[in-house]
Amino acid sequence: MRTFILHTSSLAAMMAAIAVPAAAQETQIPTVVVEADEKAAPVYRFGDPVDSGTTKIDRGSVESRAPGSGDVNEVLKALPTVQFSSRQGRATRTELQDLRPENLSISGGSIYENLFVIDGVGVNSRLDVSGTNPQHYIDGNTAASAQTVWVDSNLVESLTLRDSNVSARYSQFTGGVLEIATRRPGRRFGAETYYGETSPGLAEFRVSDRVRDAITGPLPQEPDYEKHRYGLTIDMPFGDRVRTLLAYNLSDVTVTNYRGPNWLKYGDYGLTSRNETVMLKAEADLGANLLLTSQFVWSPYESRSSHANGIDNYVTLNGGGFTGKMGLEGRLGVGRWELQLSHAFSNNDRDSDHPGTVNVNTGGGSGIDWCSGSSCSLGGPGILEQSQSETGLEGRWAQPLLGGALSAGFQLAYIEGEKGQPYSAAYRHVSTKDYPVIPNEINPNTVCADPAEEAAGTCVTGRYALAQRNDATAFHTKRDLTSTGLWAEYETDLRGFMVRAGLRYDYETFLGNHNLAPRLSISRDLPWNLNLTVGANRYYGRSFLGYALREDYPGNRIYQRRPTIVGTQRIWSNTWYLTNHSETAGYSNANLATPYSDELTAVLTGRVPVIGGDFRLKGITRNGEDQFASSRATSQVYDRETGGTSTRQIYTITNDGSTRYKGLSLEYVRQLGDHHAITFSANVSHTSSSNISYFDLADDTEYDQTLVYYQGEIRPLLEVTADNQLADYAAPLMLNADWGANWFGGRLRTNVNAHWRDGFERIEDTGVNIMVGGVRYDVFDTVKFSSSFSANLSASLELARTSWGTALLDVRVNNLFNTVLEQDYSSTSQPYQMGRNTWISLKYRY
């Protein structure tokens, strides 16, 4: 909390700079604005030919196509070069509770290697956000996200996706760029509020054929949950020169969870997640050619977790954070300039209601009846502290020059990552052949010398004492870096060819590499209203602090104690002695190159004869090199505090990773009169990657010299799997369709969108072994993955339109045709997937 106050107080002055001139303006009487009938438009617009990898989605499309959850990333499903996880439809309790935005793969890039920008402020994590176990003793924050801050779709004015041919202005990505522009303050007073919800009563659940074949008895109980979404936005101008916007959004979910078999007497329990967004924006016209902007976005995320086999083990996982910025933009002669100072902070702490566990045997008169097992535990994992902050200064200049257009800019940033934990401990019995728990630790003659131990449950007079303590040693690690970026590009018409040539320089103190990234795009108009654009570009990624923050992980220390025997009494004091010391696996950095991706792209755009509409045919090839991956483990000898030596494993981050992507997409958009618009897209691609997580070994390292049995032969594993498609975020064929329509003068607006993901084959381990020549080999064969189809419907109906505003009923139906989204899903403990499910909302606009 103290860290949050320090960061937020440093941003308060940004808003105050505009609030002062606002007070001097005379408030005007609000004017009610009633919406007129708007034309239906395709879901997105193509960028300029020379900017062939850019796609723009405006506010109307976001409102019509965002799901009821408010996740704006989901709108990008209409785009052929954006891939989502095939696991999206699972209705596990963990998935239902997750309110974070969906992860994205853009043009074959890793989900960790995109550039997310909200109103010009980067919101990208350099920390390890790959954790999946919220109870893990030291890596357990599953609320972290590659996108550190996000906002509700109701606050979004537009989305701009750049999947290829990206301007030199952008860097620190090897996937794609997603720019999210939030609503600007209005020049007239206005307000909007809404409420939406969904629950199992508005949903159906499906199971795959594979699960039905595996379950012989009745299916488990269907999921139980409640989700809500609220919002309020107010536009408040002060005179003609100052405009402000205040917005608040809240999404929450409660999911019913079930205790383990030895803890059933405690009944079901609900776990919640909660995501809030507070946004303050202000604009002031300081002159005819000078605009001052300021904004603050606070978007904290909290998710509760509790292990089913225990009590008092609740933890709160934190995510999200805040951004703030102050900017100036104006004109000077023929030039346009912008200057922006920003700060972003993300909080990935884990709070624990009861740090440290206590595990007690239930037999021998211990008096423990917390559960029905042979031992019971209370308490949870310790507190974790993890955060990232970034303070940046950015400037841009653009002007006409020699018949063309010159633009240039700089970016300076200071980034700091922290990780640590306070002290906590886990207590348990010592149980050996020579020292049985009964009667040594469970004994009616037990006497606790420290009364505080009874409250903690580590010693209870007349019943038991716990003689072993496992310490989670306190530590704190901080790593920082400075990032510098300079760029320039020039666009001109050269003998009928529109040429945009750019060059970007980046330097980060953490890796210490000077990187030059050329960008080139050449566009040419052709006969028959066609245009051909080709591009050649290099993109550099950014530093990763995950290994550096693991360098100071503390070792494990186990302490024990013994009682003092006085007559028949066994007196236990709070005095412990070290019995075991071991070091955990170590992580270290090395002299690394900056990951990069080389791209070639060709795009053909134009009008479609006869039927009308516009099309875009785009081909992209990417080769990613020097990607981050783990080394093989090496052994390191260390001195044990209890005497002697031992060894531990050391992992070093390397540049052994690589990616390959080839994709061909076709898009068609058409407006049909004033009230209908259609969009179709298809993508054929092949994506391969040597490793998924930065803590994975690259395939060339992990499988070097490994032989397997494949189709009757003993062959190298790397050769057998060389042509494998990436298993997730990489469907080889996708088809998307979208139809938007306005009815009854715009009082009813509907959208239907559909998505088909083709199945594919991979060569994988079958789980079978075979003996050949006295040697055991894993048997590899072709494994087929099923295709998937989903369709979604949204309808927004004006219930009333008066001089006092407009009331609307909004319905969002996901998986309209109630299909099984993942036929390959095989879990029998949580077998359900989301079938048809509906969000219902009411909205009021003034």
Question: Which key phrases capture this entry?
Answer:
846 residues, 53% strand, Maltoporin, Chain A, disordered N terminus, mainly beta, 7% helix, single chain, 9 helices
Structural category: mainly beta
Task: Compute the average pLDDT.
Answer: 91
Radius of gyration: 30 Å
Q: What general form does the structure show?
A: globular
Number of strands: 49
Largest sheet: 22 strands, antiparallel, barrel
Query: Quick one: CATH class?
Result: Mainly Beta
Low-confidence stretches: 1-36
- CATH topology-level name: Maltoporin, Chain A
- Counted up, domains total 1
Describe this protein's structure.
By secondary structure, the protein is mainly β. The chain has a single domain (2-845), classed as Maltoporin, Chain A. The chain is built from nine helices and 49 strands. The strands form eight sheets. The protein has a 22-stranded antiparallel barrel. A hairpin with a 2-residue loop joins strand 13 (269-287) and strand 14. It starts with a helix and ends with a strand. Mean pLDDT is 91; it is low at 1-36.
